[in-house]
């Protein structure tokens, strides 16, 4: 799913109005009607007080359309205009006149803190104060209104974007933002829904189709994409009947040190579960017996040293290499790593201490071949890029780094974001159960296994992140967040593959033909 910028959304609105020969007011009516349909489907006329707070721009106009339609259907509606400026948009004024013609209960003007209405904890707040066009913090009394919303503990539904939240930067003051329980986002989600600094402002979100021109949606290239099943299913490579283990690549995993052989075991098992035909590990001598005992499917090459890697030498011809898991930061290991990078020409995935070694010796970054994949957790990323001010600054630094070294950055997190040059791919799967040791080692193994099977490095990274998160989503149903382990991710990876082909359940129908809420 494409995630459009605010500039692209404005362009889409204007193009739609022109191509469909409708006014911007009619497009606003369409958007407000979609919001009404969403609410009506769930409430079915329930007389819970609904407080619709409208700004004086187009977001407020959407709110006025909604309030008018709720009134027409007999809902218990209280409409307010947050009178924070004397600049009103044309479409707001049109819909302000329409609601005054609909009911004698005209919208109440709010001009200061003394005007704040009482709101009960069982009421519903609809936030239609500001939209994506906000470019400055709200004034103090409007901030007070937003805090009034939050203090009421009422269910808060935001229209398109929680008011006070920018589409493209982090707000200066969290008290100047509406904390929404649910956001109905027009046509596509917003990037801020997926970033650690800003995702807290909406607990859940849903996309409403407001009929933006289909050709525009299909042909417009976006900087950001949301990756889900629909994006991953077409890239899946089915197995041929007469294929054999050699068909699906030979992955080599390099790493481990005394006390950290488990990282290599997990990575190797992840690579096998991804579908790799052959997996070999290169580890210190101390890992030989554990690796051969725990994972008999994996072949083992050992370093001459008992506890660490000192000379990376192998006589196999791998199709992909993953390096860094449990590697350690010993000087001899660094020298071996540097020498390996100078001679390597095989597609490469770098994790954990491989990243840490490069962060300590940044001159070695020049040795990397294009399309090298990095899989850092936040602290490893900070060592690699330097400190950042906020999530948008982090992504800017990541794009600069990716373009400089022509590499792929898999930024692990609640919504793992894969960065390749100027493009961002936001993953839709995964849960807090993944916040446990070893899950990153598994992910590196899966990426290496997929590249070895013939997937391009970027495609393999996106697919691996999706499958890794989906496996966790399936496993958490049996184990819960606290008891989920890295081994469970491997055990459920097969079900994640099968889920690609699972059909969604059929929704039961009501007598009038509408779907049940």
TrEMBL record:
Binding site for K(+): 59, 127, 163
YjeF N-terminal domain boundaries: 9-218
Family annotation (InterPro entries): Carbohydrate_kinase_pred_CS (IPR017953), CARKD (IPR000631), Nnr (IPR030677), Ribokinase-like (IPR029056), YjeF_N_dom (IPR004443), YjeF_N_dom_sf (IPR036652)
YjeF C-terminal domain sequence ranges: 228-500
This enzyme's EC code(s): 4.2.1.136, 5.1.99.6
Amino acids binding AMP: 412-416, 440
One Pfam assignment: Carb_kinase
Cofactor section: K(+); Mg(2+)
Cofactor note as given: Binds 1 potassium ion per subunit.
Catalysed transformations (reactions): (6S)-NADHX + ADP = AMP + phosphate + NADH + H(+); (6R)-NADPHX = (6S)-NADPHX; (6R)-NADHX = (6S)-NADHX; (6S)-NADPHX + ADP = AMP + phosphate + NADPH + H(+)
Keywords for the protein's UniProt record, in alphabetical order: ATP-binding, Isomerase, Lyase, Metal-binding, Multifunctional enzyme, NAD, NADP, Nucleotide-binding, Potassium
UniProt-annotated binding residues for (6S)-NADPHX: 58-62, 131-137, 160, 263, 326, 377, 441
Lineage top rank: taxon: Bacteria
Matches recorded under HAMAP family: NADHX_dehydratase (MF_01965), NADHX_epimerase (MF_01966)
Task performed by this protein: Catalyzes the epimerization of the S- and R-forms of NAD(P)HX, a damaged form of NAD(P)H that is a result of enzymatic or heat-dependent hydration. This is a prerequisite for the S-specific NAD(P)H-hydrate dehydratase to allow the repair of both epimers of NAD(P)HX. Bifunctional enzyme that catalyzes the epimerization of the S- and R-forms of NAD(P)HX and the dehydration of the S-form of NAD(P)HX at the expense of ADP, which is converted to AMP. This allows the repair of both epimers of NAD(P)HX, a damaged form of NAD(P)H that is a result of enzymatic or heat-dependent hydration.
Quaternary organization: Homotetramer.
Family: In the C-terminal section; belongs to the NnrD/CARKD family.
Name by which UniProt lists this protein: Bifunctional NAD(P)H-hydrate repair enzyme
Organism this protein belongs to: Gelidibacter pelagius
UniProt lineage: Bacteria, Pseudomonadati, Bacteroidota, Flavobacteriia, Flavobacteriales
